[in-house]
Amino acid sequence: xxxxxxPNLCGGTIRTFTPDDTDECFYIRGDESLSEIISRAKExxxxxxxxxxxxxxxxxxHEDCLDYDLYDRSDYADYLCISIIG
Length: 86
Description:
The protein is mainly beta and 86 residues long.
């Protein structure tokens, strides 16, 4: 996770980004199911986690072609930030 690179068609590299998980939150792609979110939350914070202590927020994160000047919607991805309250 974090910053990385991938090859481009001209033989160079393109800078990429994937959000990092922390002790208080994790990121999951925006198209995952609710059961996957709950499963990951229980895995991270324990099976007895109170669902009222979990916050879900949506983020549109720039993850591809970081050094390119022009806006390109395909360089962004929708993530859900799942965090624990308190």
